[in-house]
Specification:
The complex is a heterodimer of chains A (116) and B (383).
Chain A (H helix, E strand, L loop, with lengths): L1 H5 L2 H5 L2 E5 L5 E2 L15 E5 L3 E10 L2 E8 L4 E6 L9 E12 L4 E10 L1
Antiparallel strand pairs in A: 1-2, 1-3, 4-5, 4-7, 5-6, 7-8
Chain B lengths: L2 E8 L10 H16 L8 E5 L3 H5 L4 H8 L9 E4 L5 H14 L5 E8 L7 H5 L5 H5 L5 H16 L3 H15 L13 H6 L2 E3 L2 E2 L9 E9 H7 L4 E10 L14 H14 L8 E3 L5 H10 L8 H6 L16 H5 L6 H14 L11 E8 L4 E8 L1
Parallel strand pairs in B: 2-3, 2-4, 9-10
Antiparallel strand pairs in B: 1-7, 1-8, 4-7, 5-6, 8-11, 10-11
Classes of the chains: A mainly beta (116), B alpha/beta (383).
The structure holds zinc ion.
The site of zinc ion (ZN) has 8 residues of chain A, from loops.
Chain lengths: 116, 383
Protein backbone atom coordinates (compact mmCIF):
# COMPACT_ATOMS: atom_id res chain seq x y z
CA UNK A 1 0.00 0.00 0.00
CA UNK A 2 2.92 2.38 0.59
CA UNK A 3 3.98 2.98 -3.03
CA UNK A 4 0.36 3.37 -4.01
CA UNK A 5 -0.08 6.46 -1.85
CA UNK A 6 3.46 7.80 -2.17
CA UNK A 7 3.18 8.01 -5.94
CA UNK A 8 0.58 10.75 -5.56
CA UNK A 9 2.30 12.72 -2.81
CA UNK A 10 3.24 15.72 -4.93
CA UNK A 11 -0.32 16.05 -6.23
CA UNK A 12 -1.86 15.71 -2.76
CA UNK A 13 0.54 17.96 -0.84
CA UNK A 14 0.46 20.95 -3.15
CA UNK A 15 -2.82 20.50 -5.03
CA UNK A 16 -0.98 20.01 -8.30
CA UNK A 17 -3.36 19.25 -11.13
CA UNK A 18 -3.21 19.25 -14.91
CA UNK A 19 -3.56 22.07 -17.43
CA UNK A 20 -4.16 21.28 -21.10
CA UNK A 21 -2.29 23.74 -23.31
CA UNK A 22 -4.33 22.61 -26.29
CA UNK A 23 -7.80 23.50 -24.96
CA UNK A 24 -7.13 25.48 -21.77
CA UNK A 25 -8.90 23.06 -19.38
CA UNK A 26 -7.86 22.46 -15.77
CA UNK A 27 -8.18 19.03 -14.16
CA UNK A 28 -7.93 17.82 -10.61
CA UNK A 29 -6.82 15.20 -9.89
CA UNK A 30 -4.04 15.15 -12.46
CA UNK A 31 -4.84 13.41 -15.73
CA UNK A 32 -2.65 11.64 -18.24
CA UNK A 33 -4.93 12.46 -21.14
CA UNK A 34 -7.28 15.40 -21.67
CA UNK A 35 -10.83 14.09 -22.09
CA UNK A 36 -11.58 16.89 -24.55
CA UNK A 37 -8.45 16.55 -26.71
CA UNK A 38 -7.42 12.94 -26.07
CA UNK A 39 -4.58 12.15 -28.54
CA UNK A 40 -3.95 15.86 -29.07
CA UNK A 41 -3.65 16.49 -25.31
CA UNK A 42 -0.86 18.80 -24.22
CA UNK A 43 -0.99 18.36 -20.46
CA UNK A 44 1.40 19.84 -17.96
CA UNK A 45 1.43 19.81 -14.17
CA UNK A 46 0.22 23.01 -12.66
CA UNK A 47 0.03 24.17 -9.08
CA UNK A 48 -3.62 24.97 -8.44
CA UNK A 49 -4.96 27.96 -6.48
CA UNK A 50 -4.80 27.71 -2.70
CA UNK A 51 -8.28 29.12 -2.26
CA UNK A 52 -11.78 28.15 -3.17
CA UNK A 53 -15.35 27.95 -1.91
CA UNK A 54 -17.41 25.16 -0.42
CA UNK A 55 -19.86 23.93 -3.05
CA UNK A 56 -21.42 21.29 -0.79
CA UNK A 57 -20.43 19.19 2.20
CA UNK A 58 -21.36 16.41 4.53
CA UNK A 59 -20.42 15.32 8.02
CA UNK A 60 -19.37 11.70 8.13
CA UNK A 61 -17.57 9.87 10.95
CA UNK A 62 -17.38 13.24 12.78
CA UNK A 63 -15.43 14.84 9.93
CA UNK A 64 -16.52 17.51 7.49
CA UNK A 65 -15.92 16.36 3.92
CA UNK A 66 -16.55 19.04 1.31
CA UNK A 67 -16.59 19.52 -2.41
CA UNK A 68 -14.47 22.60 -2.96
CA UNK A 69 -14.61 24.74 -6.07
CA UNK A 70 -11.09 26.08 -6.64
CA UNK A 71 -10.64 29.53 -8.07
CA UNK A 72 -9.65 28.15 -11.51
CA UNK A 73 -12.90 26.22 -11.88
CA UNK A 74 -11.59 22.77 -10.93
CA UNK A 75 -13.14 20.89 -8.00
CA UNK A 76 -11.52 18.91 -5.22
CA UNK A 77 -12.92 16.76 -2.44
CA UNK A 78 -11.23 17.32 0.90
CA UNK A 79 -11.71 17.49 4.62
CA UNK A 80 -12.40 20.91 6.05
CA UNK A 81 -11.03 21.65 9.52
CA UNK A 82 -13.70 23.79 11.16
CA UNK A 83 -16.45 23.48 13.74
CA UNK A 84 -19.14 24.48 11.31
CA UNK A 85 -19.23 25.24 7.59
CA UNK A 86 -21.79 26.34 5.03
CA UNK A 87 -22.20 26.33 1.28
CA UNK A 88 -20.41 29.33 -0.23
CA UNK A 89 -17.86 29.64 2.60
CA UNK A 90 -14.37 30.67 1.46
CA UNK A 91 -11.59 28.27 2.36
CA UNK A 92 -7.86 27.93 1.83
CA UNK A 93 -5.62 24.89 1.79
CA UNK A 94 -3.64 23.58 4.73
CA UNK A 95 -1.20 20.67 4.92
CA UNK A 96 -2.57 18.05 7.33
CA UNK A 97 -2.38 14.46 8.44
CA UNK A 98 -5.03 12.22 6.88
CA UNK A 99 -4.46 8.86 8.49
CA UNK A 100 -2.14 6.01 9.08
CA UNK A 101 -1.73 2.51 7.80
CA UNK A 102 -1.56 -0.60 9.96
CA UNK A 103 1.02 -1.51 12.56
CA UNK A 104 3.92 0.10 10.70
CA UNK A 105 2.11 3.36 11.41
CA UNK A 106 2.99 5.03 8.13
CA UNK A 107 1.29 8.40 8.27
CA UNK A 108 -0.45 9.82 5.25
CA UNK A 109 -0.55 13.53 4.71
CA UNK A 110 -2.57 15.52 2.26
CA UNK A 111 -4.34 18.79 1.70
CA UNK A 112 -7.19 19.84 3.91
CA UNK A 113 -8.92 23.19 3.90
CA UNK A 114 -9.62 25.77 6.59
CA UNK A 115 -12.01 28.73 6.56
CA UNK A 116 -10.44 32.03 5.54
CA UNK B 1 -33.25 -10.28 -33.53
CA UNK B 2 -35.94 -9.48 -30.95
CA UNK B 3 -35.20 -10.72 -27.46
CA UNK B 4 -37.69 -11.67 -24.76
CA UNK B 5 -37.55 -12.55 -21.09
CA UNK B 6 -39.31 -15.89 -20.70
CA UNK B 7 -38.51 -16.93 -17.14
CA UNK B 8 -37.80 -15.15 -13.87
CA UNK B 9 -36.64 -16.20 -10.43
CA UNK B 10 -35.57 -14.46 -7.26
CA UNK B 11 -34.73 -15.41 -3.70
CA UNK B 12 -35.95 -13.51 -0.74
CA UNK B 13 -33.62 -10.55 -0.09
CA UNK B 14 -32.24 -9.98 3.39
CA UNK B 15 -29.91 -11.44 5.97
CA UNK B 16 -29.90 -15.03 4.77
CA UNK B 17 -27.69 -16.44 7.53
CA UNK B 18 -28.70 -20.03 6.90
CA UNK B 19 -28.00 -20.01 3.15
CA UNK B 20 -24.72 -20.03 1.25
CA UNK B 21 -23.65 -18.03 -1.80
CA UNK B 22 -23.97 -21.04 -4.04
CA UNK B 23 -27.33 -22.17 -2.73
CA UNK B 24 -29.04 -18.80 -3.18
CA UNK B 25 -27.87 -18.65 -6.78
CA UNK B 26 -29.29 -22.11 -7.38
CA UNK B 27 -32.62 -21.20 -5.78
CA UNK B 28 -33.10 -18.22 -8.12
CA UNK B 29 -31.87 -20.12 -11.19
CA UNK B 30 -34.17 -23.10 -10.66
CA UNK B 31 -37.15 -20.80 -10.11
CA UNK B 32 -36.39 -19.07 -13.43
CA UNK B 33 -36.00 -22.35 -15.33
CA UNK B 34 -39.21 -23.75 -13.84
CA UNK B 35 -40.99 -20.54 -14.76
CA UNK B 36 -40.47 -21.21 -18.48
CA UNK B 37 -40.10 -24.97 -18.39
CA UNK B 38 -36.72 -25.34 -20.02
CA UNK B 39 -33.84 -27.68 -19.23
CA UNK B 40 -30.45 -26.43 -18.12
CA UNK B 41 -28.74 -28.03 -21.09
CA UNK B 42 -30.72 -25.81 -23.50
CA UNK B 43 -28.92 -22.75 -22.15
CA UNK B 44 -26.25 -21.30 -24.45
CA UNK B 45 -24.41 -19.15 -21.92
CA UNK B 46 -24.53 -17.80 -18.37
CA UNK B 47 -23.89 -14.17 -17.39
CA UNK B 48 -23.55 -13.49 -13.68
CA UNK B 49 -23.59 -10.06 -12.09
CA UNK B 50 -21.51 -10.01 -8.92
CA UNK B 51 -19.80 -7.00 -7.42
CA UNK B 52 -17.28 -8.37 -5.03
CA UNK B 53 -17.18 -12.09 -4.30
CA UNK B 54 -13.50 -11.54 -3.60
CA UNK B 55 -14.03 -9.04 -0.82
CA UNK B 56 -17.35 -10.25 0.58
CA UNK B 57 -16.64 -13.99 0.75
CA UNK B 58 -13.05 -14.38 -0.49
CA UNK B 59 -14.21 -16.16 -3.63
CA UNK B 60 -13.33 -15.20 -7.19
CA UNK B 61 -13.99 -17.27 -10.32
CA UNK B 62 -17.67 -16.89 -9.45
CA UNK B 63 -19.05 -17.80 -12.88
CA UNK B 64 -17.29 -21.16 -12.98
CA UNK B 65 -18.44 -21.90 -9.43
CA UNK B 66 -22.00 -21.18 -10.41
CA UNK B 67 -21.91 -23.25 -13.61
CA UNK B 68 -20.47 -26.08 -11.52
CA UNK B 69 -22.92 -25.87 -8.65
CA UNK B 70 -25.89 -25.55 -11.03
CA UNK B 71 -24.82 -28.77 -12.75
CA UNK B 72 -24.16 -26.92 -15.98
CA UNK B 73 -20.41 -27.55 -16.10
CA UNK B 74 -21.49 -31.07 -17.09
CA UNK B 75 -22.56 -29.62 -20.46
CA UNK B 76 -19.61 -27.25 -20.68
CA UNK B 77 -21.88 -24.19 -20.85
CA UNK B 78 -19.76 -21.01 -20.93
CA UNK B 79 -20.17 -18.73 -17.92
CA UNK B 80 -18.82 -15.26 -17.29
CA UNK B 81 -19.02 -12.88 -14.36
CA UNK B 82 -19.81 -9.25 -15.03
CA UNK B 83 -18.65 -6.59 -12.56
CA UNK B 84 -19.79 -2.99 -12.53
CA UNK B 85 -20.15 -2.29 -8.81
CA UNK B 86 -23.85 -2.28 -7.91
CA UNK B 87 -24.71 -2.06 -11.62
CA UNK B 88 -23.26 -5.55 -12.09
CA UNK B 89 -26.70 -7.17 -12.46
CA UNK B 90 -27.94 -4.68 -15.05
CA UNK B 91 -24.67 -5.03 -16.93
CA UNK B 92 -24.92 -8.83 -16.90
CA UNK B 93 -28.46 -8.50 -18.27
CA UNK B 94 -27.15 -6.30 -21.07
CA UNK B 95 -24.40 -8.80 -21.98
CA UNK B 96 -27.01 -11.57 -22.06
CA UNK B 97 -29.34 -9.42 -24.17
CA UNK B 98 -26.56 -8.74 -26.69
CA UNK B 99 -25.66 -12.42 -26.89
CA UNK B 100 -29.21 -13.28 -27.99
CA UNK B 101 -29.81 -10.15 -30.08
CA UNK B 102 -26.65 -10.88 -32.08
CA UNK B 103 -27.79 -14.41 -32.86
CA UNK B 104 -24.79 -15.90 -31.05
CA UNK B 105 -27.05 -17.78 -28.63
CA UNK B 106 -30.76 -18.69 -28.69
CA UNK B 107 -31.33 -18.97 -24.94
CA UNK B 108 -29.16 -17.55 -22.14
CA UNK B 109 -29.42 -16.96 -18.43
CA UNK B 110 -28.65 -13.60 -16.83
CA UNK B 111 -28.30 -13.73 -13.08
CA UNK B 112 -27.05 -11.71 -10.16
CA UNK B 113 -25.87 -12.90 -6.79
CA UNK B 114 -24.29 -11.37 -3.72
CA UNK B 115 -23.59 -12.70 -0.24
CA UNK B 116 -22.95 -9.62 1.82
CA UNK B 117 -23.72 -10.43 5.43
CA UNK B 118 -20.81 -12.88 5.82
CA UNK B 119 -18.47 -9.88 5.49
CA UNK B 120 -17.24 -7.90 8.51
CA UNK B 121 -17.36 -4.53 6.73
CA UNK B 122 -19.96 -4.62 3.97
CA UNK B 123 -20.27 -0.80 3.69
CA UNK B 124 -16.50 -0.62 3.28
CA UNK B 125 -16.69 -3.11 0.43
CA UNK B 126 -19.56 -1.23 -1.18
CA UNK B 127 -17.46 1.94 -1.00
CA UNK B 128 -14.81 0.33 -3.21
CA UNK B 129 -17.06 1.55 -6.05
CA UNK B 130 -15.84 5.13 -5.45
CA UNK B 131 -12.37 6.48 -6.28
CA UNK B 132 -10.03 5.05 -3.65
CA UNK B 133 -7.20 7.52 -4.30
CA UNK B 134 -9.16 10.76 -4.33
CA UNK B 135 -12.45 10.11 -2.54
CA UNK B 136 -11.88 7.33 -0.02
CA UNK B 137 -8.42 8.70 0.86
CA UNK B 138 -9.87 11.96 2.17
CA UNK B 139 -12.42 10.17 4.36
CA UNK B 140 -15.46 9.96 2.08
CA UNK B 141 -17.49 6.81 1.63
CA UNK B 142 -20.42 6.04 -0.65
CA UNK B 143 -23.10 7.63 1.59
CA UNK B 144 -20.92 10.73 2.06
CA UNK B 145 -20.83 11.40 -1.68
CA UNK B 146 -24.58 10.97 -2.04
CA UNK B 147 -24.96 13.27 0.97
CA UNK B 148 -22.93 15.96 -0.78
CA UNK B 149 -25.24 15.65 -3.79
CA UNK B 150 -28.33 15.74 -1.54
CA UNK B 151 -27.23 18.87 0.31
CA UNK B 152 -26.54 20.69 -2.96
CA UNK B 153 -29.93 19.63 -4.39
CA UNK B 154 -31.62 21.03 -1.29
CA UNK B 155 -29.61 24.25 -1.48
CA UNK B 156 -30.23 24.84 -5.18
CA UNK B 157 -33.77 23.53 -5.70
CA UNK B 158 -35.41 23.69 -2.29
CA UNK B 159 -35.72 19.92 -1.94
CA UNK B 160 -36.19 19.05 1.73
CA UNK B 161 -35.26 16.23 4.08
CA UNK B 162 -39.01 15.48 4.26
CA UNK B 163 -39.12 14.99 0.48
CA UNK B 164 -36.36 12.41 0.67
CA UNK B 165 -38.04 10.76 3.66
CA UNK B 166 -41.27 10.43 1.65
CA UNK B 167 -39.39 8.34 -0.92
CA UNK B 168 -38.33 5.87 1.77
CA UNK B 169 -41.88 5.83 3.16
CA UNK B 170 -43.35 5.06 -0.29
CA UNK B 171 -40.90 2.24 -0.93
CA UNK B 172 -41.55 0.64 2.45
CA UNK B 173 -45.30 0.85 1.78
CA UNK B 174 -44.87 -0.95 -1.56
CA UNK B 175 -42.65 -3.65 -0.06
CA UNK B 176 -45.40 -4.74 2.31
CA UNK B 177 -46.96 -6.56 -0.66
CA UNK B 178 -43.72 -8.09 -1.95
CA UNK B 179 -43.09 -11.56 -0.48
CA UNK B 180 -39.39 -11.37 -1.46
CA UNK B 181 -38.77 -8.02 0.28
CA UNK B 182 -36.43 -7.54 3.24
CA UNK B 183 -38.57 -4.94 5.04
CA UNK B 184 -42.31 -5.61 4.76
CA UNK B 185 -43.18 -2.92 7.21
CA UNK B 186 -44.50 0.61 6.79
CA UNK B 187 -42.56 3.52 8.21
CA UNK B 188 -43.48 7.17 8.74
CA UNK B 189 -41.76 10.36 7.63
CA UNK B 190 -40.94 11.09 11.30
CA UNK B 191 -39.20 7.69 11.59
CA UNK B 192 -36.88 8.61 8.75
CA UNK B 193 -36.23 12.12 10.06
CA UNK B 194 -35.45 10.89 13.56
CA UNK B 195 -33.16 8.07 12.46
CA UNK B 196 -29.44 8.59 13.01
CA UNK B 197 -27.27 10.47 10.52
CA UNK B 198 -25.10 8.28 8.31
CA UNK B 199 -23.67 11.23 6.40
CA UNK B 200 -25.49 14.54 6.92
CA UNK B 201 -28.14 15.16 5.66
CA UNK B 202 -28.72 11.45 4.91
CA UNK B 203 -29.97 9.24 7.71
CA UNK B 204 -30.11 5.51 8.27
CA UNK B 205 -33.60 5.29 6.75
CA UNK B 206 -32.48 7.19 3.63
CA UNK B 207 -30.09 4.32 2.85
CA UNK B 208 -30.81 0.95 1.27
CA UNK B 209 -29.77 -1.96 3.46
CA UNK B 210 -27.05 -4.35 2.40
CA UNK B 211 -28.65 -7.67 1.66
CA UNK B 212 -27.95 -11.20 0.55
CA UNK B 213 -29.88 -12.35 -2.44
CA UNK B 214 -29.90 -13.80 -5.92
CA UNK B 215 -32.03 -13.30 -9.00
CA UNK B 216 -32.13 -14.88 -12.44
CA UNK B 217 -33.90 -14.38 -15.75
CA UNK B 218 -33.97 -16.46 -18.91
CA UNK B 219 -33.71 -14.63 -22.22
CA UNK B 220 -34.59 -16.16 -25.58
CA UNK B 221 -34.99 -15.03 -29.16
CA UNK B 222 -38.49 -14.20 -30.30
CA UNK B 223 -39.21 -17.52 -32.08
CA UNK B 224 -38.25 -19.64 -29.12
CA UNK B 225 -39.89 -17.23 -26.69
CA UNK B 226 -43.29 -17.56 -28.34
CA UNK B 227 -43.06 -21.37 -28.20
CA UNK B 228 -41.93 -21.36 -24.57
CA UNK B 229 -44.51 -19.07 -23.05
CA UNK B 230 -47.77 -17.23 -23.59
CA UNK B 231 -46.52 -14.06 -21.99
CA UNK B 232 -43.06 -13.21 -23.32
CA UNK B 233 -41.84 -9.80 -22.17
CA UNK B 234 -39.81 -8.10 -24.88
CA UNK B 235 -36.62 -6.14 -24.38
CA UNK B 236 -37.23 -2.96 -26.38
CA UNK B 237 -33.88 -1.44 -25.45
CA UNK B 238 -30.98 -2.08 -23.12
CA UNK B 239 -28.39 0.67 -22.99
CA UNK B 240 -25.44 1.57 -20.83
CA UNK B 241 -23.38 4.71 -20.31
CA UNK B 242 -20.34 5.78 -18.32
CA UNK B 243 -19.44 8.97 -16.45
CA UNK B 244 -16.35 10.16 -14.60
CA UNK B 245 -15.72 7.92 -11.59
CA UNK B 246 -14.97 10.66 -9.07
CA UNK B 247 -17.67 13.19 -8.28
CA UNK B 248 -15.18 16.06 -8.40
CA UNK B 249 -14.53 15.42 -12.11
CA UNK B 250 -18.16 15.95 -13.10
CA UNK B 251 -19.26 19.34 -14.34
CA UNK B 252 -22.74 19.12 -12.84
CA UNK B 253 -22.96 17.38 -9.45
CA UNK B 254 -26.75 17.30 -9.68
CA UNK B 255 -27.09 15.34 -12.92
CA UNK B 256 -26.12 11.73 -13.37
CA UNK B 257 -25.00 12.17 -16.92
CA UNK B 258 -24.67 8.41 -17.47
CA UNK B 259 -28.33 8.01 -16.48
CA UNK B 260 -29.56 10.76 -18.77
CA UNK B 261 -27.49 9.50 -21.69
CA UNK B 262 -28.41 5.82 -21.27
CA UNK B 263 -32.10 6.71 -20.94
CA UNK B 264 -32.08 9.05 -23.95
CA UNK B 265 -30.50 6.27 -26.01
CA UNK B 266 -33.02 3.74 -24.71
CA UNK B 267 -36.02 5.98 -25.50
CA UNK B 268 -34.69 6.54 -29.02
CA UNK B 269 -34.16 2.80 -29.66
CA UNK B 270 -37.56 1.88 -28.17
CA UNK B 271 -39.17 4.78 -30.07
CA UNK B 272 -40.98 6.09 -27.01
CA UNK B 273 -40.63 8.96 -24.58
CA UNK B 274 -40.50 9.01 -20.78
CA UNK B 275 -44.20 9.91 -20.65
CA UNK B 276 -45.04 6.51 -22.14
CA UNK B 277 -43.38 4.53 -19.35
CA UNK B 278 -46.08 3.02 -17.12
CA UNK B 279 -43.88 1.71 -14.30
CA UNK B 280 -40.22 1.95 -13.30
CA UNK B 281 -37.78 0.23 -11.00
CA UNK B 282 -34.95 2.65 -10.25
CA UNK B 283 -31.74 2.52 -8.24
CA UNK B 284 -32.62 4.03 -4.86
CA UNK B 285 -29.45 3.02 -3.03
CA UNK B 286 -30.09 6.35 -1.25
CA UNK B 287 -33.33 8.33 -1.36
CA UNK B 288 -31.55 11.16 -3.20
CA UNK B 289 -30.61 8.66 -5.93
CA UNK B 290 -34.29 7.98 -6.61
CA UNK B 291 -35.01 11.70 -6.72
CA UNK B 292 -32.21 12.27 -9.25
CA UNK B 293 -33.56 9.33 -11.26
CA UNK B 294 -36.96 11.07 -11.62
CA UNK B 295 -35.14 14.00 -13.21
CA UNK B 296 -32.45 12.26 -15.21
CA UNK B 297 -34.89 9.71 -16.68
CA UNK B 298 -37.11 12.59 -17.82
CA UNK B 299 -40.08 11.93 -15.51
CA UNK B 300 -39.60 15.43 -14.09
CA UNK B 301 -37.64 18.52 -15.11
CA UNK B 302 -34.26 19.09 -13.46
CA UNK B 303 -34.84 20.46 -9.98
CA UNK B 304 -38.50 19.43 -9.89
CA UNK B 305 -38.13 15.78 -8.83
CA UNK B 306 -39.53 16.47 -5.37
CA UNK B 307 -42.89 17.47 -6.88
CA UNK B 308 -43.48 13.88 -8.03
CA UNK B 309 -43.18 12.50 -4.52
CA UNK B 310 -45.06 15.42 -2.90
CA UNK B 311 -47.97 14.99 -5.31
CA UNK B 312 -48.08 11.19 -5.12
CA UNK B 313 -47.30 10.70 -8.82
CA UNK B 314 -44.71 7.99 -8.11
CA UNK B 315 -47.01 5.96 -5.84
CA UNK B 316 -48.82 2.88 -7.13
CA UNK B 317 -51.90 4.46 -8.72
CA UNK B 318 -50.01 7.65 -9.62
CA UNK B 319 -48.92 8.84 -13.06
CA UNK B 320 -45.60 6.99 -13.00
CA UNK B 321 -45.31 4.43 -10.19
CA UNK B 322 -41.66 4.00 -9.18
CA UNK B 323 -40.32 0.99 -7.29
CA UNK B 324 -43.53 -0.99 -6.74
CA UNK B 325 -41.27 -3.80 -5.43
CA UNK B 326 -40.13 -1.59 -2.57
CA UNK B 327 -36.93 -0.71 -4.42
CA UNK B 328 -33.47 -1.15 -3.02
CA UNK B 329 -34.61 0.67 0.11
CA UNK B 330 -37.22 -1.84 1.25
CA UNK B 331 -36.97 -4.87 -1.03
CA UNK B 332 -33.25 -4.87 -0.22
CA UNK B 333 -30.00 -4.25 -2.08
CA UNK B 334 -28.14 -7.47 -2.79
CA UNK B 335 -25.65 -5.40 -4.78
CA UNK B 336 -24.83 -7.55 -7.86
CA UNK B 337 -28.29 -9.15 -7.78
CA UNK B 338 -30.20 -5.86 -7.75
CA UNK B 339 -30.18 -5.11 -11.50
CA UNK B 340 -31.66 -8.53 -12.31
CA UNK B 341 -34.12 -8.29 -9.40
CA UNK B 342 -35.47 -5.10 -10.98
CA UNK B 343 -36.07 -6.97 -14.26
CA UNK B 344 -37.84 -9.78 -12.37
CA UNK B 345 -40.21 -7.25 -10.79
CA UNK B 346 -41.00 -5.54 -14.10
CA UNK B 347 -41.64 -8.85 -15.86
CA UNK B 348 -44.14 -9.78 -13.11
CA UNK B 349 -45.75 -6.34 -13.49
CA UNK B 350 -46.05 -6.67 -17.28
CA UNK B 351 -47.47 -10.18 -17.02
CA UNK B 352 -50.02 -9.01 -14.47
CA UNK B 353 -48.61 -11.31 -11.78
CA UNK B 354 -47.59 -8.71 -9.20
CA UNK B 355 -50.47 -9.33 -6.80
CA UNK B 356 -51.43 -6.46 -4.52
CA UNK B 357 -48.67 -4.23 -5.85
CA UNK B 358 -49.87 -4.61 -9.47
CA UNK B 359 -49.66 -1.58 -11.75
CA UNK B 360 -51.54 -1.51 -15.05
CA UNK B 361 -48.55 -1.39 -17.38
CA UNK B 362 -47.53 -2.05 -20.96
CA UNK B 363 -44.12 -0.42 -20.93
CA UNK B 364 -41.63 -0.58 -18.08
CA UNK B 365 -38.19 0.85 -17.38
CA UNK B 366 -35.37 -0.35 -15.15
CA UNK B 367 -32.44 1.82 -14.03
CA UNK B 368 -29.42 0.20 -12.39
CA UNK B 369 -26.62 2.51 -11.25
CA UNK B 370 -23.05 1.73 -10.22
CA UNK B 371 -21.54 3.65 -7.29
CA UNK B 372 -22.33 7.36 -7.50
CA UNK B 373 -23.35 7.12 -11.15
CA UNK B 374 -20.23 6.31 -13.18
CA UNK B 375 -22.18 3.40 -14.66
CA UNK B 376 -25.84 3.38 -15.61
CA UNK B 377 -27.84 0.66 -17.34
CA UNK B 378 -31.34 1.37 -18.63
CA UNK B 379 -33.68 -1.34 -19.86
CA UNK B 380 -37.08 -0.82 -21.45
CA UNK B 381 -39.46 -3.77 -21.48
CA UNK B 382 -42.88 -4.23 -23.06
CA UNK B 383 -45.52 -6.88 -22.99
ZN1 LIG C 1 -7.41 19.53 -23.87
Amino acid sequence: MVPRFWRKIKYRYDVVGSYCENCGSYYYPKREICPRCRRRSKLRDEKFPDEGIILSYTVVNSRIIAMIGLNNGAKTLAEVCADKVEIGMKVKKAFRRYGEEGEAGIIYYGTKFVPI
Amino acid sequence: MKVAVVGVGCTEFGELWDKSFRSIFLEAGIEALNDCGIEGKEIGAIYVGNMSGGKFIDQEHIAALIADHAGLAEFGIPAVRVENADASGGSAFRQAFMAVASGMHDVVIAAGVEKVTDSVDPMGVLSTSIDQEWERFVGANLPALYAIIARLHMHKFGTTEEDLARIAVKNHKNAVHNPKAQFRKEIKVEDVLSSEFVAEPLKVLDCAPLSDGASAVILANENIARKLCDTPVFVEACTQASDYLALQCRKDLLTMRAVSKASRDAYRIAKIGPEQIDVAEVHDSFTIAELLAYEDLGFAKKGEGAKLIREGEVEIGGKIPVNPSGGLKACGHAVGATGIRQIVELVLQLRGEAGKRQVDAEKALALNVGGTGATAVVTILSR
